[in-house]
Design goal:
Layout (H helix, E strand, L loop, with lengths): L5 H8 L3 E3 L3 E9 L10 H18 L6 E8 L2 E6 L9 H10 L2 E9 L6 E6 L1 H9 L7 E7 L8 E9 L2 E12 H7 L5
Antiparallel strand pairs: 1-3, 2-3, 2-5, 3-4, 4-9, 5-6, 7-8, 8-9
Helix pairs in contact: 3-4
């Protein structure tokens, strides 16, 4: 009887290169920026603070820093959250809280190292609503792409949502960026 080991053959033929990651991802909830011309009342600020704390408590690990694993493909680095987020806070509960209280989500790519840059992108309640309206793939997952329109070189973030019991849950956050640009954003990483 003989056994064939395909693992070595597959690794040798692919151009993927796994390395240790020096980046983590974090989602924050914060008030929508209204600019300097608009004023918010103290009561509204207090309500927003109260709702933000409520969302963080309901979301639990969704708002904690999540380490990443990195894969290099050709000239791009692809960072994936190492742990999947728990199914605690559904988008069906989150979206109305964000919309009614002028709140939004900020998705951060946190680079390790002294004076390293952080890349952050906004995930609005409208984007989440559109994602819920879309059809899931064969694995019951949906994805939303985040990209800065004026600075495409900052890469693209992918927010993955899992459909479970007819509810939508943020499951993972991935980030793809050109390897050269990424290395310029990591300063004194040690």
């Amino acid at each position: 009887m003989s056994f064939v080991n395909y693992t070595k053959d597959l690794k040798a033929k692919t151009s993927l290169q796994e390395t240790e990651s020096n980046m983590s991802m974090r989602i924050d909830v914060l008030p929508v920026s209204l600019g300097t011309a608009a004023e918010t009342t103290r009561a509204k600020q207090d309500k927003q603070s109260e709702v933000m704390e409520q969302i963080k408590l309901l979301g639990k690990d969704l708002f904690h820093t999540n380490n990443t694993a990195v894969t290099t493909r050709a000239s791009n680095k692809f960072y994936q959250t190492a742990d999947l987020y728990g199914c605690r806070l559904s988008l069906e509960k989150l979206v109305p809280l964000l919309k009614e209280n002028d709140l939004t989500l900020r998705v951060n790519a946190l680079r390790d190292g002294n004076q390293s840059h952080v890349t952050c992108m906004e995930l609005t309640h409208k984007m989440l609503s559109n994602m819920m309206d879309g059809a899931p793939d064969s694995k019951q997952e949906k994805c939303c792409n985040l990209m800065l329109k004026t600075a495409g070189e900052q890469g693209t973030m992918y927010v993955g949502v899992k459909v479970k019991r007819s509810q939508h849950f943020i499951q993972k956050v991935d980030y793809e960026i050109n390897a050269l640009v990424d290395s310029q954003l990591h300063i004194n990483s040690s």
